[in-house]
């Protein structure tokens, strides 16, 4: 088995001539937590959307687990185990926390859209759903309506519904965005826990989060890879410091703060 689970070669995305992602060669090693960081507008989200197949690349290839997935659809790559965390809006607000995870489990089994009519069918997934809620620390909230969850806990629910798809590799887009310190710490611990036995790639603004979680960090700037390495290496890199100057959190401060 190759050490690399995800590899891009010359990955490029242009929007009407504007190059948002420029010739990116990214290698994510199996079993690691890999961070994609960069100042605003660096191309992180575009890159994330390319990797999860939500956007087609202008040029370049993406290989996942030895296969060329460049031309595949999001659902196809999800079936191969490369799963993007759902956006919070994908959580059904009027269903309970438990029901949300049961629905996700049912979807994973390729159920028809009639699934929501069959309470009996959904009940079969109850045990597994409760296990997943336990994994993400939401057992106490199982019967709460999803819309009533505190913000930080919604992310945990989103991760539980993603885990229902049994991912081999998890792609997380800013898992701590908009959270309080307390919630950030909880989500960091959660990502560490769910990363066991999996590979995780996350796009993240919060450099403290990246510092605490990532084995390898790729820094993007103006669509291209500026630096790569562990946190200590990239936070000392003069090009990275220069790219972050004038933004809210230069990596060096975060490293010593
Ligand atoms: N659909 C689009 N059409 C045109 N330009 C786009 C489109 N999507 C992104 N861009 C441009 O591509 C560049 C990279 O954007 P992207 O959102 O990928 O960066 P980012 O690193 O995720 O930024 P941020 O940290 O601010 O979210 C930006 O200049 C953005 O304006």
Can you describe this structure in just a few lines?
With 257 residues, this protein is of the alpha/beta class. It has helices at residues 44-51, 74-79, 97-108, 119-123, 126-135, 151-163, 181-194, 207-213, 231-236, 238-244, 251-256, and strands at residues 4-15, 18-24, 27-29, 33-37, 59-64, 67-68, 82-84, 169-173, 199-203, 216-221, 224-229. It folds into 2 domains: 1-81 and 167-257, Rossmann fold; 93-166, no CATH class.
Shape: globular
Strand order of the largest sheet: 7-8-9-4-10-11
CATH first level of the largest domain: which class? Alpha Beta
The number of helical runs is: 11
Largest sheet at a glance?
Answer: 6 strands, mixed
Radius of gyration: 19 Å
Fraction of helical residues: 25-40%
User: What small molecules does this complex bind?
Assistant: adenosine-5'-triphosphate
Order of helices and strands: EEEEHEEHEHHHHEHEHEEHHH
CATH architecture of the largest domain: 3-Layer(aba) Sandwich
Which structural category do the helix and sheet elements fall into? alpha/beta
List low-confidence stretches.
252-257
How many structural units, i.e. domains? 2
Portion in beta strands: 15-25%
**What is the CATH topology classification name of the largest domain?**
Rossmann fold
Beta strands, count: 11
InterPro entries: AAA+_ATPase (IPR003593), ABC_AA/LPS_Transport (IPR051120), ABC_transporter-like_ATP-bd (IPR003439), BCA_ABC_TP_C (IPR032823), P-loop_NTPase (IPR027417)
Protein name: Branched-chain amino acid transport system ATP-binding protein
Keywords: ATP-binding, Nucleotide-binding, Transport
GO molecular function, one term: ATP binding
